[in-house]
Specification:
With 390 residues, this protein is α/β, with parallel strands linked by helices. 42% of the residues lie in helices and 13% in strands. The longest helix has 24 residues, at 285-308. Bound molecules: pyridoxal-5'-phosphate.
Length: 390
């Protein structure tokens, strides 16, 4: 069989994640220290694990409603109202397999061949391949270190054409740690009001912001609810990556179509995880605060250590990544990360894995213990010294 000619071209041409390649190499090195993974090092809070166990003991092992348990959707609405001043009803919620599925459903429900999807970069790796699978056309906007990696209204205006269908708003941002303030979002909203452009606001890191201002959702601004799909989930805020649970909220006609796609592809999100998530939303505000305080401590340590050794980085205000410039080395990000891996057995992710505008940077996750981070910082400093870059 000639599988090459049999496979669908759009699927065949999908770019594999540049993050995975590094992990595959690191996995071969027994003493390698990874700062590469974008997932909490905490265990899921015990109350949540207990709720999952109890649901199994009670034999709750069947499918749920396609859109998710009604009780969970009600809790999601209460949570979004309590934490982010968002006003949704349970029929405007679909519970998904991670935020990842919610992103997929949103793009597939909205984007037709030829539609343009504006994607600020550097960013999480899935928006572009999903857009391409639908026949949509990704339009990139390079956010800049001098703008604190925020999207500006002028950049957005310049990218809009009559074919623009969707703006992906990935803040707090993976990999840069950039956030958008209420004023920044208001400027973006001003450009979008009165258009038919929809927003996919990926707010998976909404609980992980540092400093005085809490996360603001663009959907909470006047006139934006009707044109925004908010994606969120349990992976990052509640350390629940393996439970695979997320959700989307938005205007009912769009959520209805997303639920129809979900029904065909998934049926319903994992039942045990849904019961556990109800407890997360009801009982775990304190656990979120504790984890955030710990990330904040690590963030301050890593930013200071990197700046002191000459890998300048802007101060990230969200998520759990720093994105230092590696330009003092004169290497490309790929070369820098590959040599760091081979010479010091430290795995970090080249910035260009998050789009070409990430070239010249590298992503370091600080979702690791302080001891782990300290060892890693020592080795990175030695790597720079051995090569005469500091
Ligand atoms: C920005 C962003 N969005 C969405 C996701 C997907 O998370 P999950 O599918 O685990 O909810 C991730 C995971 O790393 C992410 O970084």
């Amino acid at each position: 069989m000639n599988y090459d000619s049999i496979l669908a071209p759009a699927a065949k041409e999908m770019r594999p994640s540049g993050i995975r390649r590094f992990f595959d190499m690191a996995a071969e090195m027994p003493h390698c220290i990874s700062l590469g993974v974008g997932e909490p090092d905490f265990k899921t809070p015990w109350a949540v694990r207990d709720a999952g166990i109890r649901s199994l003991e009670q034999g709750r092992t069947k499918y749920t409603a396609n859109a998710g348990l009604m009780q969970l959707r009600q809790e999601i609405c209460r949570y979004l109202s309590r934490r982010f001043e968002l006003d949704y009803q349970p029929n405007e919620v679909v519970v998904t397999v991670g935020g990842s599925e919610a992103i997929d459903l949103c793009i597939r429900a909205l984007v037709q061949p030829g539609d343009e999807v504006i994607i600020p970069e550097p960013c999480f790796v899935c928006y572009e391949p999903i857009t391409q699978l639908t026949g949509g056309v990704p339009v990139h906007i390079a956010t800049k270190a001098e703008d604190d990696f925020r999207l500006t209204a002028d950049q957005l205006k310049a990218a809009i054409t009559p074919k623009t269908k969707l703006l992906v708003l990935p803040f707090p941002n993976n990999p840069t740690g950039g956030v958008m303030s209420a004023a920044d979002l208001e400027a973006i909203a001003e450009v979008l009001r009165g258009t038919d452009i929809m927003v996919l606001s990926d707010e998976i890191y909404s609980e992980l912001t540092y400093g005085l201002d809490r996360h603001v959702s663009i959907a909470s601004l006047p006139g934006m609810r009707e044109r925004t799909i908010v994606v969120n989930g349990f992976s990052k805020s509640y350390a629940m990556t393996g439970w695979r649970l997320g959700y989307a909220v938005g205007p009912q006609p769009i959520i209805k179509v997303m639920t129809k796609i979900h029904q065909s592809c998934i049926m319903s999100a994992p039942t045990t995880s849904q019961y556990a998530a109800i407890t997360a939303l009801r009982q775990c505000d304190d656990a979120i605060e504790t984890m955030r305080d710990e990330y904040n401590r690590r963030r301050r340590y890593v930013v200071k250590a990197l700046n002191e050794m000459g890998l300048t980085c802007f101060e990230p205000r969200g998520a759990f990544y720093v994105f230092p410039s590696i330009q003092i080395s004169g290497l490309t990000s790929e070369e820098f990360c590959e040599r760091l891996l081979h010479e010091k057995e430290i795995a970090i992710v080249p910035g260009d894995a998050f789009g070409s505008s990430g070239e010249g940077f590298a992503r370091i996750s600080y979702a690791y213990s302080v001891e782990h981070l300290e060892t890693a910082m020592r080795r990175i400093r030695a790597f720079l010294e051995d090569n005469g870059w500091r």
